[in-house]
């Protein structure tokens, strides 16, 4: 009985599809995106001509854990360096690179589970607004991660800034189909100012001109998925985009427009 109960329980957990808890962008943020969208072509030309130098982001990786076993969230250093390697690989078509500034490890069952973690971040966050703080936790509500969009950097905005990821989404973690480290790639995209590709549905979009329109988050890797049809919406859904919700193995690209937008957002808010 016990065996079959835990088998059913594990299947239920592993059958979970990607969900991201990043909140909706603020009106002010949407307006910034719209403004950038109107001048995108010029900025892209300018970027390629004069600004090709890499932007290197320091990353603090905070391991929250219930105890010192790997099964209690205490993922090894090797899994963290593998996570940074995945991010560097996934961002090669952009100007961003990531270097590990340090790792902290904190045994605190409450911080390990908590979703809204002001006190945890007040204690652990390192660096300035250009520093990416990743918190690995046992996120509830089926969320694999969530992030703060860039914002006007007040003291409290900086204090709360960062990205939470479920520790089992890091490379070699145990969430089947979502354990190649793409959750951190996706969440960092939000941290750099990108929305979900399906953010505003067919008509609203994500304010980036070269991501085809998509209405609904993608599950798995369904070739030919096309939720926005007709002459106004050319192209199938961008199911391979890092800012969709597909399987990790299905996510392979940022578009040039997304690469540009991240630089625009970086300059406006974080640089
Ligand atoms: C993480 O949370 C889930 C559900 O809330 C629970 O079943 C699981 O045992 C937790 N993992 C650890 C390592 O505590
Ligand atoms: Zn997301």
TrEMBL record:
<keyword id="KW-0378">Hydrolase</keyword>
<protein>
    <submittedName>
        <fullName>Extracellular metalloprotease</fullName>
    </submittedName>
</protein>
<dbReference type="GO" id="GO:0006508">
    <property type="term" value="P:proteolysis"/>
</dbReference>
<keyword id="KW-1015">Disulfide bond</keyword>
<dbReference type="InterPro" id="IPR008754">
    <property type="entry name" value="Peptidase_M43"/>
</dbReference>
<dbReference type="GO" id="GO:0046872">
    <property type="term" value="F:metal ion binding"/>
</dbReference>
<dbReference type="GO" id="GO:0008237">
    <property type="term" value="F:metallopeptidase activity"/>
</dbReference>
<keyword id="KW-0862">Zinc</keyword>
<comment type="similarity">
    <text>Belongs to the peptidase M43B family.</text>
</comment>
<keyword id="KW-0645">Protease</keyword>
<keyword id="KW-0482">Metalloprotease</keyword>
<keyword id="KW-0732">Signal</keyword>
<feature type="domain" description="Peptidase M43 pregnancy-associated plasma-A">
    <location>
        <begin position="128"/>
        <end position="265"/>
    </location>
</feature>
<feature type="signal peptide">
    <location>
        <begin position="1"/>
        <end position="17"/>
    </location>
</feature>
<dbReference type="Pfam" id="PF05572">
    <property type="entry name" value="Peptidase_M43"/>
</dbReference>
<dbReference type="InterPro" id="IPR024079">
    <property type="entry name" value="MetalloPept_cat_dom_sf"/>
</dbReference>
<keyword id="KW-0479">Metal-binding</keyword>
